[in-house]
Specification:
about 290 residues, Diaminopimelate Epimerase, Chain A, domain 1, 2 domains, 5 helices, about 15% helix, globular
Length: about 290
């Protein structure tokens, strides 16, 4: 059996930057075991498998090299770009069905060319607050003084849980290196993902790094599913400036890996809380066939 695949660089408009994503445009004949094996073979942060729709306009499943995840950001952006590139999308709003539910997607166009894709991650939830800053710092190979004293370390989720750790400086962020065995028991054993970030980034509004060894990914160049939680964290801790109920900012990730990525965020005040949307671009770099 021959199966077509594509490779897209996501959260960028330049090849060899951003977060690489493998896409199987038609995974309808693949078993769960085959999908996991293919994801392990590509060995990227995630591989997206596009399937026959059931509850929305399109449907996909995402696998890391070691497990399936119910939702993710950079596979969503890349998958929508792939569907648009193949002529399957010519509207500006669709629903994408993932294992975590149906996510509203908005497409921005300019001169009939797709400019960016927005993923609505809803209103995230604070799952827990970690008060042991010394232990978190030690797990990241840092000192407690490297962590911002007046901001919390929190587990926040928009479908996947992430431990958000605010650091004082770019040097501290560059030095960070997660030792997962030292991480306090604040996350599920199979989902110990840590997003460390700093506002001390002169060339951008925010710089972050994602450590996700539990997913089979030592460090991730761009993590869309962490940025819904990040936007919510920024809003609830009064770190954003709102105009007419909306705040926007840009996050940079992957710089330390040589895979610079850019993620746009829009946070809106709603009656139920802060709703977060993330956006990014993608560029196709390869396509071919798998022989199964």
């Amino acid at each position: 059996m021959e199966v077509k695949y594509q490779i897209w660089d996501v959260f960028t408009n330049k090849i060899f930057t951003g977060n690489p994503l493998a896409i199987i445009p038609d995974a309808s004949q693949l078993s769960d075991k085959q999908m996991q094996s293919i994801a392990k073979e590509f060995n990227l942060s995630e591989t997206s498998f596009i399937l026959n729709k059931e509850k929305a306009d399109f449907r996909a499943r995402y696998f890391t090299p070691t497990r399936e995840v119910p939702m993710a950001g950079h596979p969503t952006i890349g998958t929508i770009y792939s569907l648009w590139d193949s002529g399957q999308i010519d509207v500006d709003e669709i629903g994408l069905e993932l294992n975590a539910g149906v996510f509203p997607i908005k497409l921005d166009y300019q001169n009939n060319k797709l400019q960016r894709v927005w993923m609505n991650q809803g209103i995230p939830k604070i799952i827990a607050t970690c008060h042991n800053k010394q232990a978190i710092a030690k797990a990241l190979g840092l000192s407690e003084i490297d962590i911002v004293a007046d901001l919390p370390i929190q587990v926040v989720s928009a479908g996947l849980e992430f431990l958000l750790v605010p650091l004082k400086s770019l040097p501290a962020l560059a030095k960070a290196n997660l030792k997962i065995d030292l991480l306090p028991d604040v996350l599920a054993k199979d989902h110990r993902a840590v997003f460390a970030f700093t506002l001390d980034a002169p060339e951008s509004e925010l710089r972050g790094r994602m450590f996700a060894e539990a997913f089979g990914v030592i460090e991730d160049p761009a993590t869309g599913s962490a940025h819904g939680p990040l936007g919510f964290y920024m809003a609830t801790n009064n770190l954003l400036k709102f105009q007419n109920g909306v705040a926007r900012f840009t996050s940079h990730q992957g710089v330390e890996m040589g895979r610079a990525s850019q993620i746009e965020l829009k946070v809106s005040k709603q009656k139920a809380g802060f709703e977060v949307k993330i956006a990014g671009q993608a560029v196709k770099i390869a396509e071919g066939k798998l022989f199964l």
